[in-house]
Design a protein that fits this description.
The protein has 6 helices and no strands. By secondary structure, the chain is mostly helical.
């Protein structure tokens, strides 16, 4: 009964509108995160960008992406790299210490004959590199 009042194209249109709304919300959140993450602009400029995006949303978002879109990608990559370095450092600390400690453990395994020369060289290159 409900399906007869709500044809198939209306369902597709509703899905398209929902998808567009979801993308719009994601874009707004990404832009606000980038505004506050950016260290190359001051507080007043950040406030102006926020007001511009809030007062004139479509035009503000478009202008922000044109003006600062490339930097937005660079700041995102920089943040990911910083987080990855922090995670790697944390894993090294919890897994057993410094690369020198790992090389010492690897040398002991090699001396005992537990690993072959090939495996020793590969693991050593991985630890050093």
């Amino acid at each position: 009964m409900v399906a007869s009042n709500y044809p198939l194209l209306d369902i597709f249109w509703s899905i398209l509108i929902f998808f567009g709304l979801f993308i719009w919300i994601y874009l707004i959140i990404s832009i606000f995160a980038d505004i506050f993450r950016s260290h190359d602009i001051g507080g007043f400029a950040k406030a102006m960008w926020v007001l511009f995006v809030l007062v004139i949303p479509l035009f503000g978002v478009l202008i922000y992406l044109i003006a600062r879109g490339h930097g937005m990608a660079q700041r995102n990559v920089k943040q990911v790299q910083t987080e990855q370095r922090a995670m790697d450092e944390y894993v090294r600390q919890t897994a057993g210490g410094s690369p020198a400690d790992e090389l010492a453990k690897l040398a002991k395994l090699h001396e005992k004959g537990k690993i072959s020369d090939e495996d020793f060289a590969k693991a050593k290159a991985k630890i050093i590199g």
